[in-house]
Structure formats: C-alpha cells, structure tokens
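Researcher: Structure for this, please.
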Amino acid sequence: MKDSRISGGSTGKREGLKYLAAAYISYLNNWPLYVWNDSAGANIMEGVVSLKPWAEGFMMNTLLSENVDYRTFKLYTNNVGNPDLQNLFQELDRQFEFTEWPGGVAKRSVRLVAVGIGSSAGLDVLWFQPDNHPTAA
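Model: Predicted structure, token format:
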C-alpha cells in the first residue's frame, strides 16, 4: 500500500482512499485483504484531512474483521458521511458492476492481514476480541 521511499514516506488522503477501495473490493468479492504499509506517518502538508480516511478505515477494519453480513456492510458504506468516500464506493459499484450479493444477509469470510512497520504502525489497528477468534477455546 505504501512505500516509505515515495513522497517522503508520508501517508495522506490518497493512500487512505486507496486502502478503503481495497477493503471495499475485498469484502464484495469475498477475498482476503493483505496490507503492507511502510510509511513515515501522516502527511503533515495535508493537515488533519490526511487522517480522516484512516479513521474511516478503522470502521472498515471492524466490518471486515467481524465478517458482518452484506446488509450491515452496505448500511455503513451507503450512509458514510464523507462525500469523497460515497463517490468512491459508487464509482467502484459502477466500475466492477457490484450488485447485491446472492447470499443477501449471510456473513462473509473475508480475512484481513495488515503489516505496519516504522512510524505508521499505529494506523494498522485491528479490532480483535479473543472470543471471536476461530481458535479460541
């Protein structure tokens, strides 16, 4: 997702939207999502706006980690308050011809694996509850 040798290593709005697009596509295709993030932290030149997609990314991480049903996923993605993100999801629906998944409300089996190195490690927060882990006793 990010190479610290590019743009001084900073992670900004563009990278956040790229991550959200990858997570969206991963969910709707029922694919695993592998993320490698090697960056030097937030893009200070963009200011706080560079962090907004990452806050939304935490919500997307929760949706993917919990393997929520299609209806719950679309409830979030159709009603997100960020117009840039609404446009992104609508464009992905058009471009990849995403329509309602035949399983309807069934849970997905998407897996999310994220590797964060350097000062970006804080961006790769995953919600995890041991009781929900498949190997939990």
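Researcher: Any notable elements?
Model: The chain is about 40% helix and 10% strand. Residues 7-129 form one domain.
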